[in-house]
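Private note to self, pasted from the team thread so I don't lose it. Backbone tokens:
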């Protein structure tokens, strides 16, 4: 990477990159790693991990050129962080259960944040969550932080009631045809649904992704049935498409 960014002999594309311009590539490479894992393509995983590592090296090289930090310091930082967050492995601390271990992890992260925070203003307990995370992941992390500080339902049953309450409010906004209010209430419904997923020990990002994949498989089945009749989707009545959907649910049950 140092050669690629050499001002005299380097690559013009690599030379013009900076932290901001690399953001979409870094995100894309992370998702391609996930894709390889989910497809269980281990050869591709090896390749995609290399592509993701390149992003770390790329950012580190840019930082090194600016006198900020280098790749070795990046590796040293994560090493120290892992040691600090695993006292039960490196420092002889004993946890009695997973909850105690999670509490120790959260406390270690909190200490790290306080050490980094140079502002005299008190830091929110919700600080430290990257705002550019996918919305579902960001929502879940924010709710987890609030929960760890006591702001949460102690039981799951009231969360179901809250979901139904928010759904009623969406319907009310829809009846009133207030688009801004509809959007607000849909957001509230999604937020409390994420909360329900968290209480049920379900990863909402993964659950939605799996549901979308299931929808896609079933929709492809519908397309195949329609194509077999030499028609397009728009040529079919909704009742017929619904019938194909029900057939897809039965036909693809093992895949779902």
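Design output:
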């Amino acid at each position: 990477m140092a050669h690629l960014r050499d001002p005299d002999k380097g690559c013009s594309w690599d030379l013009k990159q900076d932290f901001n311009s690399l953001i979409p590539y870094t995100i894309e490479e992370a998702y391609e790693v996930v894709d390889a894992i989910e497809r269980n393509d281990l050869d591709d995983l090896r390749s995609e991990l290399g592509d993701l590592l390149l992003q770390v090296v790329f950012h580190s090289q840019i930082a090194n050129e600016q006198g900020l930090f280098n790749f070795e310091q990046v590796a040293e930082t994560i090493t120290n962080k892992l040691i600090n967050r695993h006292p039960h492995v490196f420092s002889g601390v004993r946890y009695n259960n997973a909850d105690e271990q999670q509490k120790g992890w959260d406390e270690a992260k909190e200490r790290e944040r306080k050490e980094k925070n140079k502002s005299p203003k008190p830091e929110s307990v919700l600080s430290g969550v990257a705002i550019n995370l996918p919305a579902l992941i960001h929502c879940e992390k924010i709710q987890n932080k609030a929960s760890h500080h006591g702001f949460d339902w102690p039981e799951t049953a009231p969360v179901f009631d809250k979901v139904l309450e928010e759904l009623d409010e969406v319907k009310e906004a829809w009846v009133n045809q207030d688009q801004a209010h509809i959007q607000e209430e849909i957001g509230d419904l999604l937020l409390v649904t994420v909360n329900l997923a968290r209480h049920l020990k379900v990863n909402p990002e993964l659950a939605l992704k799996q549901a979308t994949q299931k929808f896609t498989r079933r929709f492809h089945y519908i397309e195949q049935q329609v194509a077999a009749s030499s028609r397009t989707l728009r040529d079919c009545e909704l009742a017929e498409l619904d019938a194909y959907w029900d057939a897809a649910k039965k036909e693809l049950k093992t895949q779902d």
